[in-house]
Automatic annotation (TrEMBL):
GO molecular function: metal ion binding
CDD domains assigned: HMA (cd00371)
Xref: SUPFAM superfamilies: HMA, heavy metal-associated domain
The HMA domain, residue ranges: 1-67
Protein name according to UniProt: HMA domain-containing protein
Length: 69
């Protein structure tokens, strides 16, 4: 399983709640997390199938900014 990391602006519980349906659909529940304590709000995704581009598209579609960490 590969691990992908991204800088985001997902910075609170409400933001996580907003992006959860999208990321659960793409990566699967339990296969992603956001470190809101980190100044860069690091999103970590573990997946064998997803590409970086797919994760970026999913997060942007949910209304958040994202870039490779």
């Amino acid at each position: 399983m590969k691990t992908l990391q991204f800088k985001t602006n997902i910075n609170c519980g409400g933001c996580i709640k907003s992006v959860t349906p999208t990321l659960n659909q793409q990566a699967g529940a339990g296969n992603w997390q956001v470190d809101t304590a980190n100044p860069d709000k690091i999103l970590t995704v573990s997946s064998d199938q997803l590409t970086s581009e797919q994760v970026v598209q999913a997060v942007e579609n949910a209304g958040f900014r994202i870039q490779a960490a």
